[in-house]
Amino acid sequence: MKMFRTLVIAIAAGCFSLSALAATEITKEQAKENNYEKVGSVNLAKKATASPTDIKEALSKLADEKGGKYFVIIAEGGNNQIEATAEVYK
Q1: What angle do CA 56, 49, 15 make, to 5 degrees?
Q2: Model's pTM, two decimal places?
Q3: For residue 68, which of 45, 87, 46 has the smallest C-alpha distance?
Q4: Which long-range contacts (CB under 8 A, 24 or more apart) does 7-13 make?
Q5: What's the pLDDT tens digit per position in 63-81?
Q6: 2-89 maps to which CATH number?
Q7: For the YdgH/BhsA/McbA-like domain, which residue ranges apply (predicted)?
Q8: pLDDT bracket for residue 2 (50, 70, 90)
Q9: pLDDT at residue 59 above 50?
Q10: What is the torsional sign of CA 90, 70, 22, 64?
Q11: Helix (H) or strand (E) holding 45
């Protein structure tokens, strides 16, 4: 039981530390209000079975790779696969 509790705590801590490094989703209004600098955009395509959380995590990772701290999803949709586009800001 003690090992299970330790494992749960370690996994939870890992999740929080990873999300702290990831780019954060914001709104277009927040980007404008805070005068964030646009550094480009990112696109992705995932299987239609991907969850909205999977899409946001993938866009966040792509925004990180582009050097951004924030991203705004500007398009999302598709039938057999989900396609999404986000603007990246720093």
Answers
A1: 40
A2: 0.73
A3: 87
A4: none
A5: 999 999 999 999 998 888 8
A6: 3.30.1660.10
A7: 36-90
A8: low
A9: yes
A10: negative
A11: strand 38-47
Of the candidate ranges 12-21, 34-43, 61-70, the one whose mean pLDDT is the lowest: 12-21
Q: For the chain, what are the domain ranges?
A: 2-89
Two tokens, residue 30: 């927040």
Amino acid sitting at position 67: G
Structural element, H or E, at residue 74:
strand 70-77
Q: Which two tokens stand for residue 6?
A: 């330790």
pLDDT of amino acid 80? 84
Return the structure tokens found at 55: 């899409």
Four-residue CA torsion sign, 17, 64, 86, 49: negative
